[in-house]
Amino acid sequence: MIEKNQFRGHEQLAYFNDEETGLKAFIAVHNTTLGPGAGGCRMWPYECEMDALNDALRLSRGMSYKNAMAGLPLGGGKAVIIANSKTDKSEELFKAFGRCVQKMGGKYITAEDVGMTTEDMMVIASETDYIAGLPHGDHASGDPSPFTARGVYNGIRAAVKYKLGKDSLEGLTVAVQGVGHVGLFLCELLHNDGAKIIVSDIVQEHLDEAVEKYGVTVVAPDEILSVECDVLSPCALGAVLNDDTIPNLKTTIVAGGANNQLANDSHGVRLMDRGVLYAPDYVINAGGIINVSGETSGNYDLDSINEKVDNIYDTLIHIFERSDEEKRPTNVVADEMAEEIIAKAKAKK
Ligand code: NAD
Q1: Residues designated catalytic
Q2: Which residue's CA lies nearest to atom 31 of ligand 1?
Q3: What's the predicted TM-score (pTM) here?
Q4: Residue 104, CA distances (Å) to 66, 99, 182, 261 in order
């Protein structure tokens, strides 16, 4: 297991099994050079523990890179709870998870991710000091999703400027996969900018809300990755850019909020070869963690947070330029830039 590629460079991995509450969770800490390993907690009904473990390892490494590229004093960590968020939630389970986070002794700071809500985080907070993204309390930063959406919107603008030479999204077609927390806020920003929006989701109420508020066009879940558009914005789950989907893309830009969009790193090359500009996921979706970092700093300041979220535009332009100069895919360039930031900080220490 530890010879697996995904484990490369991780500092710590913990498995928690609480028979009383049924909690099964992994907490992975990738790197703490820049600060404590910070990253959300995902609740998902994984088919087996290996799938959950792989997700924790991949996502925690992504958090190290994301926090480094966002210029935050945080390392990378992630937790996954193996459970169904629709049927398995209970106060006891979340309290047990809070105690697990506390046992990590501050090496890991948890926050909200897929399947979790800010209310769930409040229950977890009753058992641990190492938590952020709370809806109320001292310096609470609340729901990170609007900030993530703002970052994704900035990233889409950067990609459109770089690839299509346009300053506005007016009249461009953006296809959004998943109109949950991030996707719906993104639709609002795209709508205000005059973009035509195509969406898909697997939950009818989410689609109804997007149609009602922003007049979006709906397509079936198996159509969204191959619709003709200027920008494809994956905002649901990971691994959507793979051997099956890449040949069918009818876009020249992929820029979305989902984590781990590439099934594996080689798919970055496939996208480059097809002339598709890919905005690396952990760079474009850093808005949420930037917001949460305001809380961990103990001095939440909305203006400085928005400024950092808006910097995602420039960071992506740097990545696109270096990718073109070096003729290497954007995901590889971003990883290297993140590793350079961490190595520099380590050398300084
Ligand atoms: P969410 O659960 O609120 O929304 C996801 C949406 O995708 C839901 O509406 C769901 O029904 C839909 N969906 C699931 N499978 C689908 C499919 N096959 N086709 C179409 N739609 C599908 O989650 P979220 O908070 O909006 O996060 C979305 C993605 O962004 C995740 O990958 C998450 O890790 C990432 N992300 C979120 C944040 C944040 O601030 N919430 C921050 C960084 C990254």
Answers
A1: 78
A2: 258
A3: 0.90
A4: 21, 9, 29, 29
